[in-house]
Amino acid sequence: MTSLLAGPVEPVLLPERETALARESSRTLSEFVGAGDLDASTPNLSLRLTNTATGAEVEAAVPAVAVRLLANVLARMAEGQAVTLIPLHAELSTQQAADLLGVSRPYFVKLLEQGKLPFRKVGEQRRVHYAHLLRYLEAERRESRRTLDELVALSEEMGLYEDERP
Q1: What does residue 11 show for φ and ψ, rounded to 5 degrees?
Q2: Which residue, 77, 115, 120, 124, has fewest beta-carbon neighbours within 10 Å?
Q3: Residue 26 lies inside a defined structural domain of this protein
Q4: CB half-sphere exposure, 29, CA atoms < 13 A
Q5: Residue 1 lies inside a defined structural domain of this protein
Q6: For residue 92, which of 124, 52, 119, 56 has the smallest C-alpha distance?
Q7: For 99-121, what is each residue's pLDDT tens digit?
Q8: CA of 15: how far to CAs of 28, 134, 137, in Å?
Q9: Are residues 115 and 71 in the same domain?
Q10: What is the pLDDT of residue 97?
Q11: Residue 146 pLDDT > 60, yes or no?
């Protein structure tokens, strides 16, 4: 099944005053799910939420992996990083994909037309699978790393670069 994200992909960034709360919550959740009594066979956990303003409470059974994900999200947010959750099988519009890559939509469309990423058309609109976008990013990172390694090797060969590591 393919899911299409509705609207823009918007990262969530915590206000500065809430980062300490996110840090503490992340630490607490990480310690709990990281405890030795939880393993891959732990099917779910019970999570209780309380609205401190109204006293209303709700309890839900959630998969242990979801609590680990929540702890990770809170840790990143506590570090001041913006967080976005996107299903791997989601389809993105060209604007959403361009936003994630940090490029203009016209540039991204050129990448598609050059065959750099697979896409499908829905009417006149192009759709890109998020998983394909991730593979493209990883390939670009590998290529950048390979190019950088070549430049370092050439610089060393020419005597322009000296490794100062111990």
Answers
A1: -70, 150
A2: 124
A3: yes
A4: 22
A5: no
A6: 119
A7: 889 899 999 999 999 999 999 99
A8: 20, 28, 29
A9: no
A10: 94
A11: yes
